[in-house]
Write a structure and sequence with these properties.
The protein is globular and about 70 Å long. Helix 4 (140-156) runs parallel beside helix 10. The protein has two domains: 5-127, Phosphorylase Kinase, domain 1; 140-381, Aminoglycoside 3'-phosphotransferase, Chain: A, domain 2, CATH 3.90.1200. The longest helix is centred in the C-terminal third of the chain and has 25 residues, at 354-378. It has helices spanning 5-9, 15-26, 90-97, 140-156, 173-179, 189-192, 195-200, 203-224, 269-278, 287-304, 311-328, 333-337, 340-350, 354-378, and strands at residues 32-40, 48-59, 62-74, 107-108, 112-118, 122-127, 228-231, 240-244, 250-254, 261-264. It is of the alpha+beta class and 383 residues long. The strands form three sheets. A five-stranded antiparallel sheet has the order 1-2-3-6-5. A three-stranded mixed sheet has the order 4-9-8. Strands 7-10 form a two-stranded antiparallel sheet.
């Protein structure tokens, strides 16, 4: 990893800094740290680094292991705009606000043991290390359980739960995501001619993409005009952990709250399906089955939360936001695929050879543009 100012400051962390955090973890006020170490973890973004700290602490005669996650987050562009989609401090403010301490519907966030602002628009989050009790590849049924939890989480804010309104919460996320495609569409002939890009966007898929692009403003306007709720907005497999709560029931732990904000019902499950496919967490041959169990479970959860709206609106929002975010919104990836110097970055992010990724993304694109056709059909009932 490239050396950064924050990485240099890791060397300044000592037992005096760690001891109050460890005492919170262990709920012991008299422990002392015996030893500790840290290691970098995968999963960081372009403006964050993640480290695992672990060691042993002693209280009287008892030796106790402990672990912590340190997430270092910095401003991606040197600005400090709370209205920005990529606002660097949003996750820290979400923890400080307290609403992540008690979330509805079987959803929870990792416990936060400390927040420390650093120089140069950087913040450190000291978080609970969460372990996935299911581990490995999840069954489709587990994705359905997560969709059910997400629905009860989203739906609760229509039935009694106070909807947070802090100014730093993300707004217009879908519109901002799609706006990134404006300089790229139409894709240049040179990029389209690249062998891997042409596999990802063959003529028929590219034409369907252009059709959606011509409709995207109307689609986004319909979604933005729907009643809004609180949403995580990045709930896909890599940000999800399953564990048992105190009653022995499976709960869903969501990490990375950097995009938390307002959304229409249905937007929340777009990443659960599309991003999980794009990151190869679910085999692309199971796309239709994943779509079915996630959407049906989401509707069931909404109804249990007391929502009684039109399911066609939710289906449109899910279908339209899926294709707008995960095909239109990532069209810029074509230039990275066509650039040999950036291909290795994609392989590092996704953890697979580029040719394998392109084949999977191509299959996912067919699935997404079938959803676009469905969204177009549903429009007749929404006008």
């Amino acid at each position: 990893m490239t050396t950064t100012p924050s990485a240099d400051r890791l060397k300044m962390i000592d037992s005096m800094m760690l001891i109050p955090l460890v005492r919170k973890i262990l709920n012991q006020n008299d422990v002392v740290i015996v030893d500790w170490k840290y290691e970098a973890l995968h999963g960081a973004s372009f403006n964050s680094e993640i480290y695992r700290f672990s060691g042993n602490a002693q209280s009287r005669e008892e030796m106790m292991p402990w672990s912590l996650i340190l997430k270092m987050i910095r401003s991606p562009d040197g600005t400090d705009d709370p209205n920005s989609l990529s606002y660097w401090k949003r996750e820290a403010l979400a923890y400080q606000s307290g609403f992540l301490d008690n979330l509805p519907g079987g959803i929870c966030a990792p416990r936060c043991f400390g927040i420390a602002e650093q120089p140069d628009l950087e913040v450190w989050l000291w978080l609970e290390e969460v372990m996935d009790e299911l581990q490995g590849n999840w069954s489709l049924e587990q994705y359905g359980k997560v969709a059910h939890h997400l629905a009860k989480f989203n739906g609760a804010y229509f039935k009694g739960w106070h909807l947070p309104t802090q100014p730093w919460l993300a707004k217009g996320r879908l519109r901002s995501w799609v706006a990134d495609a404006i300089p790229v569409i139409p894709v240049s002939a040179e990029v389209l001619a690249h062998p891997l890009v042409s596999r990802l966007y063959p003529d028929d898929i590219y034409e369907r993409m252009l059709q959606v692009w011509s409709e995207h403003e109307a689609w986004i306007a319909i979604i933005e005009n729907q009643p809004q709720t609180l949403a995580h907005l990045d709930a896909f497999r890599r940000n999800l952990f399953a564990r048992h709560d105190r009653r022995g029931e499976i709960q869903t732990v969501l990490i990375d709250w950097s995009l938390v904000g307002s959304a229409a019902l249905g937007e929340e499950i777009a990443p659960l399906v599309a991003a999980s496919l794009n990151f190869l967490e679910v085999n692309s041959s199971q796309a239709q089955a994943l779509d079915k169990i996630v959407f049906e479970s989401y509707l069931e959860g909404l109804q249990e939360a007391g929502w009684q709206g039109d399911q066609r609106v939710v289906r449109f929002t899910y279908a339209a936001s899926s294709v707008l975010r995960y095909s239109i919104g990532v069209i810029g990836i074509t230039s990275m695929i066509a650039d040999e110097q950036q291909q290795a970055i994609l392989e590092q992010i996704f953890g697979h050879p580029l040719e394998e990724l392109v084949d999977v993304w191509s299959q996912a694109n067919h699935f997404l543009y079938d959803l676009a056709d469905e969204a177009r059909w549903l429009l007749r009932f929404l006008r």
